[in-house]
Amino acid sequence: MEPMEPVRRRLKSSTTVKLLMIGFLILLFLIPLSMVDSLVRERAQRRAEAASEVASTWGSRQVLGGPVLVVPYYQHGKDEKGKPTTWVSWASFLPDTLKVEGRILPERRSRGIFESVVYRADLRWTGAFKRPGFEEWRIAPEDVIWEDAYLTVGVPDMRGIRTALKLDWSGRELPLEPGGAEDGLWTSGLKVTQVPGLAEGKDGERYAFAFNLAVNGSEALRILPLGKQTSVAIKSDWPDPKFTGAFLPEERKISGTGFSALWNVSYFGRSYPQQWRHEEAARVASAESVQASAFGVELFLPVDIYQKTERSTKYGVLFLILTFLTFFLYEVWNPFSLHPLQYLLVGAALCLFYLLLLSISEHAPFALAYLIAASATVLLIGGYSAAILRGRLRALVMTCVLGLLYGYLYVLLQLEDYALLLGSVGLFATLALVMYVTRKIDWSAPRRGAEVTAAVTNG
Questions:
Q1: pTM given for the model
Q2: How far from the centroid of its chain's Cα atoms is residue 57's Cα?
């Protein structure tokens, strides 16, 4: 039976055993990396909660729509017993033309260390309605209750209304009051309880309207394209807009001092008609289809530290592999052997980088936070390498390798459209370099460092 001591020496000097140990350590470090990733998600959730708290006292995301003209009418039929009966139904009519012009005045608000963006929107709404026609539904003119017609404007968060509002209806000033909830369209809004001039009007007659709407909101503002032809023009001094919704602007200008955008939307681009009866609203103009047609702008916060930190943690395993591989190659080519605990300490420093990055970036610009965290990690591992690699030149090479890795990662974090392409090319180039450097290594031979260490130990 072979003595145990030579067997142990062979295991210690075995390249395969060393690689298996390094692989086990890399798998072990997946635990702290996942913990950091969970912490990033938790902080991002707290930031979202802080933004929600700010919005609850200022005004949430606004999706504005209207005005919509609602006209009641009598319907005649028979009840369950076959007796003639009459009841009241309603029909909704959208404007023939709708034009919205205005300006968004953004502000940054903080809740603790978390920042969110709110705004004040000053909008001018103009347009015109055609006198509603009921011929296609075969409703007699005498059954239309013109005197009870009303207008409704959708405002999802009424807390954002800043001033008393009035609507100009063909030269007549009408008050806009709370209570404009409309089934199938919106749950809250403004309302004009009586619309004059419809009863004595003629078929095809147009009624112009205009009103100013000053509203508070947060993060995003959207408009519903309820006109047969809808035009929306918005300006702001916010330099980082994100245009969202069913339609993109026809014209837009973005600069460091703000943006301007213009939308022209035809009713052909949406799924609901210009008029419908309330009993058929769920089929032809459901709340989902109406809300899905909204478009507008989001006031984007360009530096999302949590998204960038989460993206950086995805490269954690790659950093561990390349760093451990560099240390392992030093063992193969040089007369020393590294202990697993030394790999463990280096891996801990690499994982701690992400925690430093997250904590510092909450109080400083992301670029500065990244520079501090990366520099601290590189200097820590570089200084430790000078001792365990037994040479300043080897430590300098190790420091340069880590510096290149962190610089490469920072470039990837700044890119969006080309991040995947540059990341793939970088990984391929790294693999090619590793294959070239290790092309002449005899992986079945004992490591030189382990042999020398064993010889020294045995005297």
A1: 0.70
A2: 22
User: How is residue 11 written in tokens?
Assistant: 């295991």
pLDDT (tens digit, 9 = 90+) per residue, 364-418?
A: 888 899 999 999 999 999 888 888 887 788 888 888 889 988 888 888 877 766 7
How many degrees, rounded to 5, is the angle at CA 239 between CA 235 and CA 240? 105
From CA 196, how far away is CA 192, in angstroms rounded?
A: 10
Cα-Cα end-to-end distance for the chain: 25
Integer Cα distance of 316 and 338 in angstroms:
22
Asked which of 59-63, 219-223, 275-279 is least confident by mean pLDDT, the reply is 59-63
Contact 128, 97 (CB under 8 A): yes
Label residue 303 by pLDDT band (50, 70, 90): low
Secondary structure of the chain in the HEC alphabet?
A: CCCHHHHHHHHHHCHHHHHHHHHHHHHHCHHHHHHHHHHHHHHHHHHHHHHHHHHHHHCCCEEEEEEEEEEEEEEEEECCCCCEEEEEEEEEECCCEEEEEEEEEEEEEEECCEEEEEEEEEEEEEEEEECCCCHHHCCCHHHECHHHCEEEEECCCHHHECCCEEEEECCEEEEEEECCCECCCECCEEEECCCCCCCCCCCCCEEEEEEEEEEEEECEEEECCCCCEEEEEEEECCCCEEEEECCCCCEEEEECCEEEEEEEEEHHHCCCCCEEEHHHHHHHCCHHHHHHCCEEEEECCCCCHHHHHHHHHCCHHHHHHHHHHHHHHHHHHCCCCCCHHHHHHHHHHHHHHHHHHHHHHCCCCHHHHHHHHHHHHHHHHHHHHHHHCCCHHHHHHHHHHHHHHHHHHHHHHHCCCCHHHHHHHHHHHHHHHHHHHCCCCCCCCCCHHHHHHHHHHCC
Q: Which two tokens stand for residue 208?
A: 């112009």
